[in-house]
Amino acid sequence: MIAGIELLNLTLLRFPVCFKLHMTSITTLKVVLPDHRSYPIFIGAGVLDQPELLRPFFAGRQFCIVTNTTVAALYEKKIYELLVSNSPGAQISVVRLPDGERYKTLETLNEIFDVLLQDRHNRKTTLLALGGGVVGDMAGFAAATYQRGVDFLQIPTTLLAQVDSSVGGKTGVNHRLGKNMIGAFYQPQAVLIDTDVLKTLPEREFAAGLAEVIKYGLIADADFFSWLEANIDALNNRDPQALVYAIRRSCEIKADVVGQDELEGGIRAILNLGHTYGHAIETEMGYGTWLHGEAVAAGMIMACELSVDLGWLDPDILTRSKDLLLRSRLPISPPPGMSAEAFMKHMSVDKKVMDGSIRLVLLQGCGKAVVTSNFDQQALVSQLRKL
Hints:
- This protein has 2 domains: 5-250, Rossmann fold (3-Layer(aba) Sandwich); 270-385, Dehydroquinate synthase-like, alpha domain (Up-down Bundle), CATH 1.20.1090.
- The protein is 42% helix and 18% strand.
- It contains 12 helices and 12 strands.
- The longest helix is centred in the middle third of the chain and has 21 residues, at 240-260.
């Protein structure tokens, strides 16, 4: 077992650069945590058509589906029926949040609490986060704080949520002065990743999810990065086999890192490659103007550029990263006109700032990320002044 992750039903950790694979079964990973808080990640086509997967995770007969107005029209009925088939006579509430990053606020969070309290949900209720990263973060934060903690399940419906935000237990909301500055670490009981739901995902949101997939290759697995270069066309075409592998490998890496450092006291921060720059872009432009993955894509290139400037990274990796992101239909530079002063203002209040110094995730090679403030901070200022 790799530290932090058990691999169940896996035949291979990596495939050759080009592959042909026939998958008929669901892949199960397990995020390994202490104190009986480990949980499975189910990955595959048709996961939501197998209600038996959910049954072991019901503490009682009360459920609250938290979704948004867009996803509700597509999948709410399926989840509702799944709950009824698993627990006849169950009490099921539904919260339909407005769709969009700009609604990831404390005010919107209260809509979840209003329903839970009005419908008298008790400590054995289970929340089901049905949606993308915004829904997952908010439902998870509600679960962490309602009656001081109730169970919840992640059912991510975007690629970004499937490979990133649904795994690892980060929950929270945004503040006008900073992204994700109010929240809690709170793990789900399980994560159900049905690749079939990606068929209805808009192109822009799908591309935004690819940014996080590419991130995993850059921070932890050079072979996976090479695989992505060879198979990006298949991913863009939403080839089922390519998708399952890309999601699986991404979740393996994240689960391994989270298992080693659940509360981000050390190695887990490598998962934030590009995020300090990216969060600055999102905050400055207004939440939702740039999708999270778009901002992270530009931020990753900025982190690579600084790594090259410091002499830590081969310029060829920067070139390859730009090419792969462009082929994924993602930006490789920040918004035109965003000033150095705007970047520094937002980066200085980022969660990764330590003792007044900006900490960044930088690269010393493809698959070799470091979290550090021990670099020439003037090099960062110079980089930003070139914008």
